[in-house]
Amino acid sequence: MADESTDLTGKVAVVFGTRPEIIKQAPVLHALGADGAGVFTGQHYDPELTDAVFRSCGLEPLAPAVDGVGGGTRAQQVARMVDRLADRFTRQRPRAVVVQGDTNTANAGAQAGHYLGITVVHVEAGLRSHDRAMPEETNRLLISALADVHCAATPENARNLLDGAVPATSVFVTGNPVVEAVTALCPSPEETAALLAGLGVAPGGVVATVHRPENTDDPQRLRTLLAGLGELGAPVALPLHPRTRKALTAWGVPVPATVRVLPPVDYRTFLALTRSASLLVSDSGGLQEEVTVLKKPLVVVRTSTERPESVAAGFSVLSEPEDLVAHARRMTAPQAVARLADTPSPYGDGLASQRIATLARGGVPALQAV
């Protein structure tokens, strides 16, 4: 049965459904205090992993507020969430609905709030890859059309919104709560050493993640990517996403001897892996932000990115699988690594969640340039 243990009436409903959303919305919930209430749709629902993320973010684990979402098709997920969230928002009307990013949950939360005339606040608004083949791009465009308050992480994100005819009076450059999340949750050097020892991973190697369909659903692309990881000349830790595990088996893609396959890890453990690595290789969106806080080089194995700020600042580079090794060498050159240590994150000053909370309450924060 869906969880409705928290009454949303008059609260700011902070909606999330995936592990990355929990991480980025947790600072917003903390900033809202008693004015906020979390609503977890269960889009990602593996209690062993999800509950650990809640706890690591200083939140009590929430049971799903929507039944039967995990594992459905995009259409099924969005339709079910819109229906259930709108029903709950009708019975327990919140003062505002906060959604984050570009997930099916964010799309559904924005629709449910909009259709009921509730203020919709979009965190991480204005990201654009200009690649409609990405499901996330469609979600971004839909949410931008529905939201009343747009919390852009960067000035470039704000320009994307203005270019899309979003009223300037509704766009605020707040920064991204990922800065607060990484700063708060990054383990100490002692804890990092203990976590690495528990995994049997030595510091100074490469950490890789692969999960996007453009890589997992193309056997030749996946084969080339894995072969490239094996040619980096360093041990590689690869926390394996279930989709990627299935694809490796289905396509018969060999894993190089230098690549250590790990089970999925919780966020603090992943930050420990990341902060101790000499290089990151990934198709993740969030990692493109996180490396700017951790000051690490990243090769993004994708054809496009909605986070060009990370590339422009020198923290990441877009790469096709066949170019992975060449880009890795360039990103790990001593002068390149040294420069990153002195480069500020383009995603803000660590006060984004406070600004977003003020906007969600109906106020206007004292905004600073980011």
Automatic annotation (TrEMBL):
Presence of the UniProt keyword Protease in the record = no
Which UniProt keyword terms apply here?
Answer: Isomerase
Any GO molecular function: UDP-N-acetylglucosamine 2-epimerase activity
According to its UniProt record, what is one Pfam family this protein matches? Epimerase_2
CDD domains per the UniProt record, alphabetical: GTB_UDP-GlcNAc_2-Epimerase (cd03786)
Matching Gene3D superfamilies, A to Z?
Glycogen Phosphorylase B
Q: What is its EC number?
A: 5.1.3.14
Where the record annotates domain UDP-N-acetylglucosamine 2-epimerase, the positions are 39-358
Residues in the signal sequence: none
**Keyword Disulfide bond: yes or no?**
no
Q: Give the superkingdom in one word.
A: Bacteria
Which NCBIfam families does the record associate with it? wecB
- What's this protein's family per the entry? Belongs to the UDP-N-acetylglucosamine 2-epimerase family.
Protein name (database record): UDP-N-acetylglucosamine 2-epimerase (Non-hydrolyzing)
